[in-house]
Design a protein that fits this description.
binds zinc ion; Rossmann fold; alpha/beta; binds adenosine-5'-diphosphate; globular; single chain; Arc Repressor Mutant, subunit A; seven-stranded parallel beta sheet
Length: 618
Amino acid sequence: MDQTDVAANALAVLNSVFGLPAFRGPQEDIVMHLAGGGNCLVLMPTGGGKSLCYQLPSLLRDGCGIVVSPLIALMRDQVAGLLEVGVKAAVLNSSLSFEEANAVEQRLLAGDLDLLYVAPERLLTPRCLGLLARAKLALFAIDEAHCVSQWGHDFRPEYIGLSVLAERFPNVPRIALTATADDLTRQEIIDRLGLDGAPSFVASFDRPNIRYEIVDKQNAKTQLEAFISQRHAGDAGIVYCLSRNKVEETAAALTKAGIPALPYHAGLDAAVRARHQDRFINEDGIVIVATIAFGMGIDKPDVRFVAHLDLPKSIEAYYQETGRAGRDGKPSDAWMAYGLADIVQQRRMIDDSNGSDAFKRVSIGKLDALVALAETAGCRRTRLLRYFGEAVADHNHKCGNCDNCLSPPNVRDGTVLAQKLLSCAYRTGQRFGAMHLIDVLIGRATERVKQFRHDQLSVYGIGADLNEKQWRAVVRQVVAQGHLQADSEAFGALKLTETARGVLKGETEVMLREETAGSSAHRGSKSKSKRGAAPSSPDTAGHAKHSGLLAALRAWRSETARKRGVPAYVVLHDATLDGIAAERPASLNQLRNISGIGDKKLEHYGDALLALVASSGD
Ligand code: ADP
Ligand code: ZN
């Protein structure tokens, strides 16, 4: 077959099997490259469409595609989805009995599988490598390839062993896929997986349907409850916290507020964890409150929001976690509440870790980049994309779908405020945390202030024109800009840095976001009305969403998913239901033209769907 034939064939399979009308971004080039036997590295954001890049070539090439993936839940759901569209797929992992595993192995040898998902530790056993050597293989796909990187945030020692693939199977094409794109990680993937000289395909990292918003942390739980009940009543979402305790507390608080929330963290019994994850995937509108252990390898397409109550470690982690929202392309929110204590806490975790100095330096650099994102007055998306090396027209580009673009904060000269704060830290001996410094600045004669005679200092009360909240924002920004630093020896104590001198002398200007002058509440209400999300009870929101035909389609989908024992989205995606409700197809042909309906889905569900359309009046 020549190139044009392969391309036509690829498109035909995309359409008939996956029910999709066109490739997205670099998918077509990747598919063609692999189909032709080449190796490659794919960098694509979460939700970008990585799976298709290896699933489709596995169907186009002779033999079985072997997918290495770290998480059992992902394998299970991908296989369920593939079986739905008629692809012969299976898994080999620790969840199988000996007999089940044996049957899968026999099918592989008999050439009866298109795709086989294998856990890395399983793949590396002599038994499995021997098995693969006797089978006809289409390709190796190494998913979540950044797990080979010791610099990354998901390092998995068993991934290191995957270098054996290049050595043992030099003629089987390899595709490594990841959503983590920094240069260090990229180079390590190339080295370890033997991809030297192979092309990298880089998709745009933009996720236009995700709205980024970072708010000043006041009372995180109340803020979170308001965010969910006002903007995401009835929606599925993920809330990230750093500690197990906080996960438990937050889940309990949400439940008490009437929001169906479940905790997920490594300290929970494995069975409980699995049950919570299953409910999140299979039921509508569950909020999962989790440590970062949750989410990798979960393909749920209709997660409507990701909320962070604690600062992640890096922009990479933030982007990967927020990327779990809105894979289906529908509007979704990435919301984070952040405060000074978060910077202090993350800094301390780095300082206290037993990593090398080089590791600590890299980690601090990554944290600083994230803090700068949180403090920027400019477009958050532009900042994120530039971080991932994507050329954005200009610095001042406005995406129109982040908090700063939707209601731009004013920036003003805060040099005098910064000087007051720095002097206060200096005069009190650089031994106190933010709270005490603010008490002194405002002129509050607390026990502590009196004990240390700080009410006698010249800086006492010099900041009485701002309130506590405003001062907190100033402190945060001055720390974020690097003029004050949390002392890792004395918990929370703020010390002056080298650059503080320039500020005190008036040589360095300090620009501060206007919201520090107390406009943040106003900002909040303004952006709320702009998005037209007036506080709505779960009832009315639910009603608008599920009216008429769409409600009937959803009910049918829930029932079908339950009967077949698969997640609802494996039956049909929200976007496909929306398409049917909008187009109201009257024939199988018309139905077939809706994105997400391939041959098998048409065969299985066509008549039922047409009947629903015909019997619905609206
Ligand atoms: P990733 O693994 O990169 O996070 P997935 O492979 O899970 O992303 O794909 C994300 C979503 O995009 C899925 O719902 C998938 O069906 C959809 N998708 C992928 N490719 C296309 C395409 N060419 N056209 C339409 N939808 C697509
Ligand atoms: Zn923006």
